[in-house]
Amino acid sequence: MNSLKALVLLTIGAILGYGLSSWTAQSHQEDLTYPAVRLIETPTILKAPQQQETRDQQEQTLVVAQAQAQVTNNQTVTLAVDDEALTQQYLDLRAEHQQLKDKYKKSKRKVSSLKYQLSEFDGSVATDEEMEKLAPEPFNLFLSAFRGKTRNDIYDFHRKEDDLDWGYNMQNNISDFVQTHYDGMNIDLISVICKQPYCEILVTEKQEDAWNNIIKGLLTQPWWKFSSTNSSSNNVSIYMFLTQ
Fold first, then answer.
1. DSSP letters along the chain, please?
2. Which of 90, 157, 220, 231 has the fewest CB atoms within 10 Å, i.e. is most exposed?
3. Which residues form a coiled coil (predicted)?
4. How far apart are CA 70 and CA 64, in angstroms?
5. Closest by Cα among 137, 139, 141 to 129
6. What phi and psi values does residue 139 have, to the nearest 5 degrees?
7. Distance (Å, whole) CA 195 – CA 76
8. Mean per-residue pLDDT over the chain, rounded
9. Would you state the pLDDT for residue 26?
10. Phi then psi for 143, rounded to 5 degrees?
11. The pLDDT of residue 4
C-alpha cells in the first residue's frame, strides 16, 4: 500500500515537473521574442515653398540692385550734363565780362581824350615867350605849342621848387635805366626833371626807334607809375611831360 502511494506521488510529481518545465520554456521564449516594429509614416517635409520663397527674395534683391544701378547711372549722367552746362555758362559769362571790360577801356580812353580836348580850350596864364624860356632850343618850340591845362601844368611845374624826395629818386631811376639800356648809346639824355607828380624828359635821338625801345623797357619797371603822357617831337628831338 505504501508502495502504491509512493508510485502515485512520483507519477504526479513527474507530470507536474514536466508541465512546469514546459511552461517556463514557453514563457522564456515569449520573453525573447522581439517586439513587433510598427512603421510610422513620417510626413514628407515640403521644401518647395521655401525654395520658391528664396528664389523670389533673390529676384527681388536683383531687381532692387538693378534699379539702384539705373538710378546711379541716371544721377551720374544728370551731374555730367549739369557740370557741362555750368562750364559753358561760366565761359559765356567770362567772354561777356571781357567784352564789357574792353568796352569800358575804350569808353574810358574816349572820355579822357574828350576831357583833354576840353582842357585845351581853357585859357592859359603863360604867354608863348614865357613858355619858350622854360627849355633850350629846339625844345622851347614844343612848350609854346601846348595849350590849355597842359600848358598851365608845364608852366606851374617849372615854377615849383625842386623836389628832393620823390622827385630826386625818380630822376635817378629814369637816368640810370636810360644810361644802362642797350639803346642808351643811341640817344642823348639832355634833361630829366621830376617834381611830384610830374616828370619832364628831353631827349635827342641818334638812331631811329632807339627812344621807343627804351620807353618799352621803362613801362615794365615797378616804379614807373605814370598814367598820362604828353609829348612832342621832330626828327631828332623829343619832349615828354609825364603825370602820375
1. -HHHHHHHHHHHHHHHHHHHHHHHHHHHHHHHSPPPPPP--PPPP--HHHHHHHHHHHHHHHHHHHHHHHHHHHHHHHHHHHHHHHHHHHHHHHHHHHHHHHHHHHHHHHHHHHHHHHHTTS--SS-HHHHHTTS-TTHHHHHHH--HHHHHHHHHHHHSPP-TTHHHHHHHHHHHHHHHSTTGGGEEEEEEEEETTEEEEEEEESSTTHHHHHHHHHTTSTT----EEEEEE-SSEEEEEEE-
2. 220
3. 83-117
4. 10
5. 141
6. -70, -25
7. 66
8. 81
9. 52
10. -65, -40
11. 57
Give the cell for residue 86: 555750368
Angle between helices 210-218 and 166-180 (to 10 degrees): 130
Whole-number Å distance between alpha carbons of 175 and 190: 10
| Other C-beta atoms lying within 10 Å of the C-beta of residue 187 | 20
**Radius of gyration from C-alpha coordinates of the chain:** 62
Q: Are 155 and 133 in contact (CB under 8 A)?
A: no
Spans of the chain, pLDDT less than 50: 23-25, 27-35, 37, 46-47
